[in-house]
Amino acid sequence: MSGLGAQLESEIREQPAVWRALAATSHARTFSNAVSERDVVLVGSGSSLFVAMLAALALRRRGVRAAALAATEAAFERGASRGQTVVALSQSGRSADVLRAVELLQPQRLIALTNDARAPLAAKADTVIDVGAGPERAVPATKSVTAMVALTLWGAALVGGRTDRSAATLCDTADAVEAWLEDEGANEVTAAAERISLRRSVAMVGAGYGVPIALELALKLKEAAYVHAEGFAAGEFRHGSSAILDASTALVGIVDDASRTIVRRPLDEAERTESLRFTIGEPIEAVQRLGPRTGEPFNTLAWLVAGQWLALQVGRARGIDSDAPRGLTKFVV
Q: Which of 111, 187, 296, 309 could covalently link to 127 via disulfide, CB atoms 3.0 to 4.6 Å apart?
């Protein structure tokens, strides 16, 4: 493997193995036990914030009072959030913004989700969960993001007594995504990326779990391909933001069965604008679908991998080395 974004491609491909390793641990149970009977604030920055948003939604669906908070906004939110259980998410465990947020929030209990159990964040925590993604050398985070998503969704399911998210279904998802990466399905995303690379901007829309996924994939396009991209709640996109759609844009919908009706509306309305239209996840008639198909329990992992691959290939089409985006480092100090 060589060329632009070679390290990012390698780390995208390593993700199914990371999930299988996670399936063999008790980390989801540890997370579940730590948050099941408490008010919870999940704190992160960048990709970790979007994982926090997804995890908070999953916990609220199970009856836990949970909120996601941008670490950089902690100074403005500490009045309501101080003294609660805080879940701090950080790939490096060294983000200055996350460490400062922990100080400001003065948690009653701190749970650290990190990819480095020896980092300063872990040293502050009452409970440390090492997501075990292994080294990430490309600046855009991939393995640590999907590992955190898998762990928190599985843990939230345990809080609610659900059994469909399990070691077995996580391994099934790993198998399906790995097969897709090795098959022609990934080539379809590469072809779509070449078309998107010629457009001025990209809108990612979703509903439910699709909203934080849309935000994360828009970030990946900005990091890896220098494309103007934004993530939206699909219903809210129609309340003004859809005015951006024209022949210079692309619209990508994140779709599952629960969100299909909401996401379909902006995609249908975009047809007359000459925007490129795609879905990730479930199909919508007359719109090209991208990415692997998996079972519902961990379909978010498939969505993330499809979007990561898309961002990598858009970057390559634009002649950009996605391993080291300009002006960015692996963590912010």
A: 111
Interstrand relation of 85-90 and 109-114 (parallel, antiparallel or unpaired): parallel
| Closest to 4 (Cα-Cα) out of 333, 232, 312, 300 | 312
- Among 22-26, 62-66, 309-313, 326-330, the least confident range: 326-330
Considering only CA atoms, which of 180, 173, 169 is closest in space to residue 16? Answer: 173
3-state SS class at 111: strand
Residue 213 belongs to domain with CATH number: 3.40.50.10490
Q: How many CB atoms lie within 10 A of CB 271?
A: 13
238 and 130 share one domain: no
Structure tokens that stand for 319 in this block = 């002649």
Residue 140: DSSP 8-state = S
**Cα–Cα distance, 290 to 303 (Å, whole number):** 9
Order the strands of the 249-255 sheet from edge to edge.
228-233, 201-206, 249-255, 276-281, 288-290
Domain that holds residue 124: 6-166
Q: What is the structure's pLDDT at 18?
A: 98
- In this prediction, residues 264-293 reach a mean pLDDT of 96
> How many Å apart are CA 28 and CA 157, to the nearest integer?
9
* Residues 215 and 280 placed together within one structural domain of the fold: yes
Q: Which helix (H) or strand (E) holds 3?
A: none
Q: Would you say residue 331 lies in a domain? A: no
Question: What single DSSP character describes residue 205?
Answer: E
Say what the pTM is: 0.96
Both 50 and 135 in a single domain? yes
Q: Residue 129: which of 137, 121, 141 has the closest Cα?
A: 121
CA distance 282 to 150: 19
Longest dimension (CA), the chain: 55
298 and 258 within one domain: yes
Residue 288 included in any domain: yes
pLDDT in tens, 43-100: 999 999 999 999 999 999 999 999 999 999 999 998 888 889 999 999 999 999 999 9
Grouping H, G, I as helix, E, B as strand and the rest as coil, residue 112 is strand
Residue 134 lies in a domain: yes
